[in-house]
Amino acid sequence: MSVGVLSPDAKVYVRGRWVSASEAIKLAAPHRLRGRRESAREVLAKRVIAEILRSPGNYVKRGRLKKLGKEVAEEMGLKRLGYRFLITRGILARPPLLKRYYLTEKAKQLYPDLFEKK
Description:
Elements: E1 11-14, E2 17-20, H1 21-54, E3 60-61, H2 62-76, H3 84-88, E4 92-93, E5 100-103, H4 105-110, H5 112-115
Antiparallel strand pairs: 1-2, 3-5, 4-5
Helix pairs in contact: 1-2
C-alpha cells in the first residue's frame, strides 16, 4: 500500500466523528465533484453549440459529441463527460431515422450570446 493511501476499513475523523475511509469518500466526493461537473457541462454545451454553428450543415454526429465530451473532461480534470444531458435538457434533438443532432429553440433561449452575428 502506498504512503498516504488508506484502506477502505481505516478510520478517519470527519465532521466531528470517526468514520470508515469508504464512508468519508461518500461524504466528500459528490459535493466536491458536483461543481466541476456542472461547469464542465456548461463548457461542453457552449462548445457543441459553437461547433454546430460553424459546421456547413449545422449538425453534429454522435462521434463528434463523444470526442468533444472527452476533450472537455480532460481539460476539467474529470474521467468522462457524457453528451446525453444536452438531449435531456432540450438543447439538441435528432429527427427520426437520422444520425444527425441539430440545435433546438431552447439552445437559442439558453445561450443567446452564441447566436449573435458578429
